[in-house]
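Pilot study result, target chain (352 residues):
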Amino acid sequence: MRAFVLLLLGGGLLWLVLRNLGTSHAGGDAPPTPGVLVPSSSGQEDLDQAPANPRPGPGAVPAPNPAPQPGPESKSASRPIPPGGAPEGSSEAAAPAEPARLAMLARSAEEALEAGRYRDGARGFSEALLGEVRSTKPADRALLRKWSDLLARAQARYQWNATGDWPAVETKVASGESLIAVRKRVLAEHPNLLFCTGQIVRANELHGDVVRPGQLLRIPTARAHMLVDLDAHWAFYMLDDMVAAAWEVGVGMPGSETKPGTYTVGEKRKEPMWFRPGKEPVPYGDPQNPLGSRWIAWVLPDGRNSGLGFHGTRDPESVGQDLSQGCIRMRQGDVEELFEILPKDAEITVQP
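Predicted structure:
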């Protein structure tokens, strides 16, 4: 009987020892398992953090950095676009494609032209033409040709119309003044202007350069300059930021490419001779003279003659091609028109 009691007491003590050992490892002092979510006393979930910059054991691969979470400003960028397209006003809403925008612009300009709103028509065709050559895609020459013709119709009733509301200063012809004398006087009174007598004739719809005393003339104040786009093979006569006339042109052949850059208008000649380095000049009218009826020289920024220029051609089929020796070829009627309205010292910008 005594032995049985001792056996019971010994088993109880052993059970108590084992129970205490199990409690010490299952309570709050147990080593945490990294990355395991454990409930906190506040009822929130805490992520048990590993020590900062832990030293990896031999052969261990460091854990990758967690991907950055998008902030409030980037949530809309990661939001999927619904099947029907982006909602109106959202950042995903795409602007109209450039060809479609230019077509809409030209259509509005044509409607303005037909409605007699010639300034709006001219402005619209001007923007469409410039947009076409500034596009990242190759210019559509059929569109350039169509819009240039429509622009000419609009400008005939706006910029080249004595009653058009284009910017101008007015002056009266004094007794004994010629048109050249009128130009010199107005330039002395307004030294910031740049214009030629041909612009006065064209804009005032004069018949020749004969003026009479007391006649009221309007002098254009918009500054004339030229833009040539080599890739499109097109030249634009600009008055400030508006295209007043545009023409298809020929450019330099491979090996004699027309050089992009900025030039100014130099000497202007009617029925020009062709001067070749080290050779006899070729007179106007000679089949070997490629210059046609007009020559408008380009001057380099340092004042030297560039050897380049606008000129006519005996071969109108070469216009639109890369066949010149670096100059800009124009059809005879086009270069004669430009000759009259482009003043000396006007800027010429040639872009690739």
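One observation from the pilot: The first helix runs from residue 2 to 26. A full batch analysis is planned for the follow-on phase.
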